[in-house]
TrEMBL record:
Stated name of the protein: (apollo) hypothetical protein
Superkingdom assignment: Eukaryota
Provenance organism: Parnassius apollo (Apollo butterfly)
Length: 239
C-alpha cells in the first residue's frame, strides 16, 4: 500500500463524527462512532468516494480495517447497556491474578456483590407490588436512556455530519407500569443533575396522585445525574 493510499484512508476515517462514551468518559480516551455505523459501511463509503481514483478503488477491506485498528482508538459502537463498575473491576482482577488464594477471595467478593444485586431487585419488585396494592404508596423507577442521533435519514451525507443528539429521561410508575418519556435535544440542556431533577419534578407535579403520601424512588446511583445533593434538595422542595 502506498503512503498516498494509506493517508487517504486515514483522512476518510477522520471525516466521521466521533463521541466520548457517557459511561466511561473519565476512564478512557477511546472515541465512539455513531451507533448505526459499521466498519463495512465505512469501507463501502470509502470505495464510493474513490470511484474516480483507481489507486484507491483497489484497497481491500482488510487493509481498511488494519488502518482503522492500528491508527485510531475508536470503537465501532457505543456500549448499549450500563455496566457495573465493580463487576468490571472484579472480572479484570480475577482474570489477571496468578494467586489461587487471591482469585478465591475475589470470587467470593463477586458472589456477595451479585447476591446484593439480586436482593435489591427483589426489594424493588416488592415495593412495586406495594404501590399496586396501596393508594398512599407510589414507586418511581427512572433513568436516562440511550441517546438517539437526529435526523434519522438513510443518505450518505449524514454519515459525515455531527448529528444532533436526542436525550430521553424515562420514568416508570409502579402503580400502572406505564412509561413516561421526557425528551429534549442537546443545546437546550445537558444530562446532569439539573435536567434529571427537572424531569422528576415535572413528573411528580403532573402525574403523582394526590392520595400518595409515601414515594419510593429507584435509580441507578449515577453521581452526576441522580445520586447527589441537588436531587436530595429538590425532593425536600417538591415532596
Amino acid at each position: 500500500m502506498t503512503q498516498y493510499v494509506e493517508q487517504s484512508i486515514i483522512e476518510h476515517i477522520d471525516k466521521f463524527p466521533k463521541y466520548k462514551s457517557h459511561y466511561y468518559r473519565a476512564q478512557t480516551d477511546r472515541m465512539y462512532l455513531p451507533p448505526d455505523m459499521t466498519l463495512s459501511k465505512m469501507y463501502d463509503l470509502y470505495l464510493s468516494d474513490a470511484s474516480s481514483d483507481e489507486s484507491r478503488k483497489t484497497v481491500s477491506f482488510a487493509s481498511y480495517k488494519r488502518i482503522f485498528c492500528t491508527k485510531f482508538n475508536i470503537q465501532r459502537k457505543k456500549p448499549q447497556k450500563d455496566t457495573c463498575n465493580k463487576c468490571d473491576l472484579l472480572a479484570v482482577k480475577i482474570r489477571d491474578t496468578t494467586s489461587q488464594e487471591t482469585k478465591l477471595n475475589l470470587e467470593k467478593e463477586r458472589q456477595q456483590h451479585h447476591k446484593e444485586a439480586e436482593d435489591a431487585r427483589a426489594m424493588k419488585k416488592q415495593e412495586i407490588a406495594l404501590a399496586k396494592t396501596y393508594d398512599h404508596i407510589e414507586t418511581l423507577t427512572f433513568d436516562m436512556e440511550k441517546t438517539l442521533p437526529m435526523p434519522r435519514i438513510p443518505t450518505n451525507v449524514v454519515f459525515y455530519k455531527r448529528q444532533l443528539w436526542l436525550y430521553n429521561c424515562d420514568v416508570h410508575p409502579g402503580k400502572t407500569g406505564k412509561g413516561f418519556c421526557y425528551v429534549w435535544v442537546e443545546g437546550k440542556a445537558g444530562t446532569g443533575a439539573q435536567e434529571v431533577g427537572s424531569t422528576l419534578r415535572k413528573h411528580i407535579s403532573l402525574n403523582l396522585d394526590s392520595k400518595v403520601k409515601e414515594l419510593i424512588l429507584w435509580l441507578d446511583s449515577c453521581g452526576s445525574q441522580d445520586r447527589n445533593i441537588k436531587l436530595t434538595l429538590l425532593l425536600f422542595v417538591v415532596l
